[in-house]
Amino acid sequence: MSNEKKVPVAEEDVYSTEGRWPVFIKLMAVTGVAAALGELVGTVKFPVGPGNVILLPMIFAMIFAVLVTPDALGSKIKALKEICGEKEVKLSESMLTLVLIILGIKLGMSAGPNIEKVLAAGPALILQELGNLGTMVIGLPIAMLLGMRREAVGSTLSICREPTLGLIGEIYGIDSPEGLGVMGTYMVGNLFGTIFFGLLGSFGLLTGIHPYALGMACGMGSGSMMTAASQALAASVTVSPVWANLVTADEVLAFAATSNICTNVDGLYMEFLIALPVANFLYKKLSPVFFKDKA
Amino acid sequence: MTLSKTLNELKALVLCGAVILFAQWVNTIRGGTTMEFLTAVVGMFIIILISMLSLKIKQLLPWKIPAFAWASILGLLVTTPWCPFQQVVLDFTNAVTTGAVSSVILAVAGVSIGTKLSDIKRLSWRMIIVAIFVFCGTFFGSALIAQLILSVQGII
To answer: How much is the ipTM here?
Structure first.
């Protein structure tokens, strides 16, 4: 371990406990109580068509947590702001990284014992990465149909998490139409992404697509969204009359974990080298179709 | 990469671990699940140890690969049948449930959007519709390709 290499920007110690113990304790108390309440509500399942849609404790935990934040009940009840204020929210963003790492390890541990199955499915795992381009194949025409111009390219480039914000910010500037598009999908993802993928993971099974393939689809580059999707899918598989005896929850998680590793490794490069050129190409080809009267 | 920074990361991870074990314990109150508390505590310490390793790998390597990915890779490596201590690791870490970890993640994620709720007023309905198609696009895009290749391979 050498300290000779100078880090270009002195990174701030986001986990510094100096003078911040109360913030740590309050945040962990709030999340602990929210998670506990979620666990107490338990798993709710309701039948839809041939299967079940499952709401896991985590979804309720999230809702309870959102409720106590400064923007929600905190704006009405002053005492709540004392417990969960701006400082706690700020710290929660850093703590999220850590809890996600813990989950990453647990998911890796469901893949390890299944490594032979995962390796056998290698070609599918690698090629399904191209499926992430589905965001624009489906999204771009819809966005243009709704009257969006260059915003459409940004908003449908990917699921638009922080790395995409950085990429588009660098190329077009975050105030450009493309940047505004990315911000839009980013914000929708923040607010509804996790809950939406929590439902999609469960609904996905009703399409008849094999749980292995759906598992791979869960790794899409966002930690909390992939958590929601893969857990909901795994739980749905175990209660599904069709799949319960054929597929285990651990196998589903194994494919989700390895697919997510792939997306984490190739994600940004693929966005820059493939997704952006394809989006610009599609935009150019589709413009005359959608905007012929105004061109 | 100073010692105090490493120590702070460790403290924060221990806090996270404690909250996760608490959530898992609450789940046992509802009945239906049991929890071997001591085994789970040891399992959590193993997980925290690997977490620290992931953070350090991420900080030491120049590649833009998140610590989350390193964590999955390490977790995978130590539990493959080729790893000499696979069984020991699994015996302890299996006592920590993924479900409890997920509940805590989403609780923290819930708090983290706490100051962003007002964004909702800035969002147009167009954005919401487009985002829904974007989310479905990546999910079903990947699922369909995987389905195709897996059936060509004869795996499913």
So the answer is: 0.94
